[in-house]
Every structure is written in C-alpha cells, then in structure tokens.
Amino acid sequence: MAEKTLPHNEDAEQNVLGAVFLDPSTIKSISDSLEVEDFFVRRHRVIYQSFLDLTAEGVDIDYTTTIDRLKTKQQLLEAGGEDYILGLSETTPSIANLDHYINIVRDKAVMRNMIEVARDVSEKGFEAQDMQSFIDESEKRIFDVARSRRTSGFIDLKRVTEDVIHKAEEAKNKQGELIGLDTGFERLNDYTLGLQPSELYVIAARPSMGKSAFALNIATNIAKLKHRPYIAFFSLEMGVDQLVGRMLSCESNVASVRLRQGELNTGEWQRLSVASDQLEKLNVLFDDSGTVKVSDLRQKCRKLAQEDKLDLVVIDYLQLLSGSVPYTNRVQEVSEISRTLKEMARELKIPVIALSQLSRSVEQRTEKKPIMADLRESGSIEQDADVVLFLYRDDYYNENSERPDIVDVMVAKNRSGATNIKGFPLLFRKKYSQFRTTKDPKHEPDENLEDLD
To answer: How far are the Cα atoms of 52, 93, 293 from residue 89, in angstroms, in the given order?
Structure first.
C-alpha cells in the first residue's frame, strides 16, 4: 500500500510566491503570516527564503535579484531553475485573493504539524509510564498546534476605536440592560455590568462567611436567564448532594437542616416540589471529583465549550486545585493555577469565578476586614484576577453586632470599573443558604461608581 502524501496545495504555494513578483510590497503581509517551513514543496521553501533574505538586506525583490541571490548561494537548481521562477507570476491569477492563498498554505502546514504530533504521541504512548502526564503533555502539544492555525497580527487603532464605539452604541441601545451575565444582585451588576467574557472573578473570604453560598446563588441566578446559560460548577470541598440541597433550600425557603432531617410540613413539601421542578430546567453541571489538577479542569471545560455547553465556570475553591506538575513551592503552584484560570477564561471567552480562602492573618488583627495582602499563598491571584470581591460579616466576629446577618461585599479590585473597599450590604439568610438585596441604614454609603480604579 502506497504511503499517503502529506497535506499540501502546490498551486496555492505558487500563487503566494508569484504574488511577490506581481507586487513586491506583498512580502510584508506574507512574511507576517507564513514561515519557511509552512511551504511543503522544497523549491518553494528555497525561493521564499531568498525573498526573506533580500528583504532583510533592503534589496527590492524582482526576477533578477532573486535569481542572482539563488546563484550566489548555489541554490538555483534546487529552486527549480530560471524558467520555473520566471513562470511563477504567470501561474498567479492576481493578488486579489492573496489572503485566501496564504490561509490555504497555512492550513495545510497546520494539518501536517498535527499529523506529526499525532504520530509522535502514538509512539510515546507505547513507552509512557504515567498516564496523566502523558495525556497532559499530548493535549498541550495538540492545542499548541491548533492555536497556531491563524497568526494574529497587530490591530490598528482605527479598527479598535470603531469596535469600542460600536459596543458603546450597543450598550446605549440596550437602555440600561446589562452587557454581561446578570448575577441577580443589582449592586454587583453596577460594578461589573454583569459577568464579562474572558474575565476572572475571585471571591475571597475566611471560612463561614458564605462565599460558597454566594457563588451558588450567582450561578443559580445566571442559570435562570432567558437563554438558559450553561454553568460548570467545580466543587472540590462539598459533594453534589450538599450543593443541590443548598439550592433547593434557597429556592423553596425550607431550612436546610429541616430538609436534611426530612421534618417538613405539607406547605414545605409543596414548596420543595415546586423548587425541584424549577431547578431541573436549569443547565447547571456539577463536578465534585475532589482535588484535581488545574489541567484536568481546563480539559473538561474545553470539552464542554466544544459542545456549546459552557457560559460560566465556578470553582469552589482555588486552593484545593493542584498544579499540572508537582511543585515543592506552594506559592509557585498557586501562581500557575491562577494564571491557568485566567488563560482559560480568555481562551474560551467565558467568565470564570474562583473562590479563594484568605490567610489566618485576618484573625490576628484588630480590624478584621480583609485586604489584598490576605489573599492566601500567592500575590498572583491579585495580579491575574480582573475583579476581586471580599465577603465580610461583622456578626461573625462580634456577638453583639448591630448588623446581624449582613454580609459586606467589598470590591477590592475592578480592572474595568470602580472599587468599593467599604462594601455594599447583602442579607445572608444562612439557614436557607440565601443572599438577598437589603437596605442597611447602618451601612456607610457606597463610593462613587464613577471613580475608577
């Protein structure tokens, strides 16, 4: 059985090279998009390299300079000879479709690279000792090839300006509607304009402040939106039954302890039945596989995105994730985790919410309200996050607090908007795992939303 020829398109390669003779200025856009190795035919690689050499030396490209360069390097025969080079422009219809020819050449090169990687992965599969490391490395190599299928050039200011103005006009036409996912909390939406694609949101607090319940409330609110978004909820601390129990308690206003004990009256059973019917319609996907590598999480999210089943990711919580490789330094490991989560948000163009524990240093201070330095184990969390929210309950520390059941949501960082270190209040009905908007007269007024960070 004859060996198959690797993917290539000789005509497209000829048309790209011929375009340079028709208009030498095209070498600039071609060299931005194609490498020498992207050409499959050997003589085309030699000719293209001569173009790059001449350009680097500031020499104009034409038949004479190209043939002279090839003769000097004793590569004229390897390039197909004078007649072949002279005939290149004759085979090229015009430069009008140059971008299309470039894309064909590039796509075929990507296909060849993918075949090469697949062959190498197949060979290494026979020798691999650690299954997870083998899968992680294989996935990374395949993804790197897939990501290279189009080179992204610079974007000029005019195009970006038009884009920004268009988005502003869209926002105006929405007449106050959010441009991101509606969290269900008006004050939070004021600061974020809804959860935005490609952004990493970190919700940080000490234990028992309600951060898991808050994230679950946000996820449920978003899942109820008209277009029924898909939410992937990774729980590394609680099982799915606990999470769903909290959701049912929140939706039905049946205390979670009564739900667990099954001591419900007729009215509570009815509310529970209605809540169950409502929740079953939502696209919330849970993963409670426990401590997982951040690379595994990313792989699962990619699969959901490929199936068009991913609009938001929630991770509870960041410190329970592990790095893709063993680390001796936990700070470096958390740095890799936060960086990977941000990269995932940008790659999949979705918002990612990651919950985070705060360090115990909060407990040792007189002032218990959290600050950025309290982010546990890594300053990179602060660096990678687009928005950092702190949750603080005064009644947790003060038994006689004048603000019982009030959680302050502090906007400590907001890359695209205002911050609010004083926080805005939400009512936390703990027995229902439920957050609600509230007006707290004892709460200081919010900072001006026009004051950007």
So the answer is: 18, 8, 54
